[in-house]
Amino acid sequence: MAEIQLRNLQKRWGDFVGVEGFDLTIADREFLVLLGPSGCGKTTTMRMIAGLEEVSGGEIRIGDRVVNDLEPKDRDVSMVFQSYALYPNMTVYENIRFPLKVRGVDPASHDEKVMRAADMVELREFLHRRPAELSGGQRQRVALARAIVRQPNVFLMDEPLSNLDAKLRVSTRAQIKNLTHDLKVTTIYVTHDQIEAMTLADRVVVMRKGKVQQVGTPTEIYDRPANAFVASFIGSPAMNLIDGQVAEGTFTADGTAISGLDLPDGPLTLGFRAEDARLAEFATQAEITAPIYTIELLGDAVMISVRIGGALVSVKADKSFRAEIGTPVSIHVPARICHPFDADTGERV
Ligand code: ATP
């Protein structure tokens, strides 16, 4: 059992707050992703769990032990870093075997354990090579094999795919998902890539400036973002956010009038996703009318944007759509697809 409990976890350096009030229970075998922009505290949180960073406050439990004062090697966690951190003078075999050696695991079992880990990441034919003789993807697989070789209870991964090219990222991502599922380990995975988060996670924690913004399944976070920051961070393109005013159930901004909203009068930030809105066939059906600002061919669709106040607002059109920049378009944005956020705090209303 490797349930992880984080209770009011804090990290401060002098006056600077790196992580604040982090409270979460991560279930045994869960795949949890920490997601957020650069500097939001993801790596610091992970390093505190690994024991590489001292905590300034709060408690970390792994299984039934409080581990705050345990050395990293006594926490039964394995880490995989973005930089692979392989030993250049060792062969792939020796790199994978290394954790067994330092932990004094019975040498008679090394060969079998190394082979099993190498097989899981399809590295058997490379065991005699040194890291310099491998591609980036192969090196990252060595780092994965080294992390799984001693079957830890907890896997910590810090942006393990960020040095790989786009194609290799997709295949290695699938391999990680498969591997952690087969190994039945609790995994915490750090990324700033929302696609990685959405595809890998059982649950996602969205962080900003050291604070948790929302915890939920990928679907929950996508369908019901807790605030405008989460809304703008999840989804590609980001959710459209328009600042305007509500009066008698109608939201208005430049070229925009969306009625049928059950909201109090006053300022509001209104969000909707490009894929939920559509071009209106008749101008009378349109809630937004504005000239085209950009037009991008995506292959399976065409992405159009217009400017509303200071904001760019995108809508997905059929792949056959063709028009010039500057041509007026009408966009249908029914109230039911809209996400309302407080104009000051950004919290969902
Ligand atoms: P990235 O995606 O860029 O790796 P991150 O979300 O992992 O970002 P952290 O590395 O956890 O961010 O850093 C969180 C904040 O703490 C940052 O503002 C960083 O500058 C600060 N920080 C990290 N380490 C230290 C340190 N040793 N002393 C002071 N501040 C630090």
From TrEMBL:
<dbReference type="InterPro" id="IPR008995">
    <property type="entry name" value="Mo/tungstate-bd_C_term_dom"/>
</dbReference>
<keyword id="KW-0547">Nucleotide-binding</keyword>
<comment type="similarity">
    <text>Belongs to the ABC transporter superfamily.</text>
</comment>
<dbReference type="GO" id="GO:0016887">
    <property type="term" value="F:ATP hydrolysis activity"/>
</dbReference>
<dbReference type="GO" id="GO:0005524">
    <property type="term" value="F:ATP binding"/>
</dbReference>
<dbReference type="InterPro" id="IPR047641">
    <property type="entry name" value="ABC_transpr_MalK/UgpC-like"/>
</dbReference>
<keyword id="KW-0813">Transport</keyword>
<keyword id="KW-0472">Membrane</keyword>
<dbReference type="GO" id="GO:0140359">
    <property type="term" value="F:ABC-type transporter activity"/>
</dbReference>
<dbReference type="Pfam" id="PF00005">
    <property type="entry name" value="ABC_tran"/>
</dbReference>
<keyword id="KW-1278">Translocase</keyword>
<dbReference type="GO" id="GO:0008643">
    <property type="term" value="P:carbohydrate transport"/>
</dbReference>
<dbReference type="InterPro" id="IPR012340">
    <property type="entry name" value="NA-bd_OB-fold"/>
</dbReference>
<dbReference type="InterPro" id="IPR003439">
    <property type="entry name" value="ABC_transporter-like_ATP-bd"/>
</dbReference>
<dbReference type="InterPro" id="IPR017871">
    <property type="entry name" value="ABC_transporter-like_CS"/>
</dbReference>
<dbReference type="GO" id="GO:0055052">
    <property type="term" value="C:ATP-binding cassette (ABC) transporter complex, substrate-binding subunit-containing"/>
</dbReference>
<dbReference type="InterPro" id="IPR015855">
    <property type="entry name" value="ABC_transpr_MalK-like"/>
</dbReference>
<dbReference type="InterPro" id="IPR003593">
    <property type="entry name" value="AAA+_ATPase"/>
</dbReference>
<protein>
    <submittedName>
        <fullName>sn-glycerol-3-phosphate ABC transporter ATP-binding protein UgpC</fullName>
    </submittedName>
</protein>
<keyword id="KW-0067">ATP-binding</keyword>
<feature type="domain" description="ABC transporter">
    <location>
        <begin position="4"/>
        <end position="234"/>
    </location>
</feature>
<keyword id="KW-1003">Cell membrane</keyword>
<dbReference type="InterPro" id="IPR027417">
    <property type="entry name" value="P-loop_NTPase"/>
</dbReference>
